Amino acid sequence: QYAERLVYPEDLPVVGAAIEKALASTDKHYSTELVHRVAYADGGMGYISVSVHIDRDDEGHILRYYGANQDITERKLAEEAIKAEQERAEHAAALLSEALDIAKLANWEYDVEKDIFTFNDHFYKIFHTTAEREGGYQMSSAQYAERLVYPEDLPVVGAAIEKALSSTDKHYSTQLEHRVAYADGGMGYISVSVHIDRDDEGHILRYYGANQDITERKLAEAALAKRATELELAARVSTAAATMMDADRLMQEVVELTKQSFGLYHAHIYLLDEAGDTLKLASGAGDVGKTMVAEGRSIPLHQEQSLVARAARSREGVIVNDVRSDPSFMPHPSLPETQSELAVPMIVGDRVMGVFDVQSNETDHFSLEDVRIQTTLAAQIAVAVQNARTFTLAQRQAERETALNVIGQKIQSATSVEAVLQIAARELGRALHAPLTIAQLGTKERAHAATD
User: Fold this and answer.
1) d(CA 284, CA 292)
2) Helix or strand or coil: residue 299?
3) C-alpha neighbours within 13 Å on the C-beta side of residue 374
4) Is pLDDT at 242 greater than 80 in this prediction?
5) SS3 for 434?
6) Pairing of strands 318-320, 298-300
7) What is the spatial distance between Cα 213 and Cα 211, in angstroms, rounded to a whole number?
8) Which of 259, 285, 257, 284 is nearest to 270 (CA)?
9) What is the model's pLDDT at position 398?
10) Over the stretch 229-240, which tens digit does the pLDDT of each residue have?
């Protein structure tokens, strides 16, 4: 009846097990204690603490089975409320920690009198290190500057600290961005917010702030700036290609613009000869490039040790970001500082006209985006060179036809055979830039005699 009426149904196994254990004991004075829920007779649920005692005689017969119940409902509810609050706080702290990790944000405090920064795990994570590695959560300003601030940005950080300390504002705030030296190598960027609270006399009560890792944003901004420069150059090259009808001048302008605008070590253009088996250097940036062109530098199309030849054969862009470790790289003594190279084919329709080759004095300089940009540029150059060549041929043909018309008109105005021959010899010599021109005239009979 007790179990049915007053014990909370789900706790019946707990109570039953306690009773069974008590009855099975052989101790002369047995005691135990348990806590379980009870069902109030007027509804609801509570908690009781039950102490159980059994006294036995020497033969083990139970003399007395007794105990005491204490209502601990308020205590249990308070404990559960505290536990729930702790769980909520732990959950909130976990969410906050996760948010800080996602935002790459960390706070810090600075004790001006002791010259001590106090950091946390989130702070050290930004710098790719740990409190254990740095010897704890505190370090002096000198240690912070030496270990974690990028050397070239030390003046920026020092000026910001000096300005903050010299301020008399009751609530001073500022923000700055600077580079940091990662503990495991490399460089990043952080945005630092600084706050100082002072009392009415101007004494610092609290100096604190937060750091946020903005490396990804800064790199994205740099990539966008580079992309803008590349697009601007492509537009300038396109303009030059559309307005210049001199192929040699056009190619020289392109390599000079490319080298300057992209901050490259070198740029040059190879053109495939009429036989289609040799790439001849047509233009190169700067004095070095012009000297190489004057030397008549050329590369056989099937030469294995050449990135330029490989790009022409494969009809695809070729990147080597560490040329010293690539067996296909063919060094040139006039370009000793080349570290990275990008070669893209110049294609018009289905025909490879040549190769546009650019070089950097930095390893890992080129990316797939560079291939895309330079491939587009190479296609523009190829079309422009073809158009310039076509224009030059057409111009020469027109000049020849004009010269022939003039000569024909002068010949027709002649009144004697001697005058015809003189005009023909003189005008053809001028047109062909010949230092000596001779016209011979023979009769039909003499021609046959000569043949006989």
Assistant:
1) 7
2) strand
3) 31
4) no
5) coil
6) unpaired
7) 7
8) 284
9) 72
10) 777 777 777 676
- φ/ψ of 351, rounded to 5, equals -105, 130
pTM assigned to the model:
0.52
C-alpha count within 13 angstroms, C-beta hemisphere, residue 281: 20
345 near 270, Cβ under 8 Å?
Answer: no
Q: What angle do CA 202, 208, 214 make, to 5 degrees?
A: 135
Two tokens at 131?
């409190």
**Which amino acid does the sequence have at 379?**
A
C-alpha span between 53 and 25 (Å, rounded):
11
**Listed residue (194, 228, 8, 187) closest to 107, CA to CA:** 194
Model confidence pLDDT, tens digit, residues 290-312: 999 999 999 999 998 889 999 99
Alpha helices in 149-214 (DSSP H): 154-166
* Residue in 101, 72, 347 with CA at minimum distance from that of residue 213: 101
Q: Say how many Å lie between the first and final Cα of the chain, rounded.
A: 151
Among candidate residues 94, 147, 99, 165, the one with its CA nearest the CA of residue 136? 147
Q: Give the pair of three-digit tokens for residue 339.
A: 């570290």
Give the strand order in the sheet containing 204-213: 138-139, 116-118, 105-111, 204-213, 187-198, 171-181
The beta strands (E) that lie in 116-219 are given as: 116-118, 138-139, 171-181, 187-198, 204-213
Distance CA 143, CA 117 (A): 10
Where do we find the tokens 């992209």? 262
- So what's the pLDDT on residue 450? 43
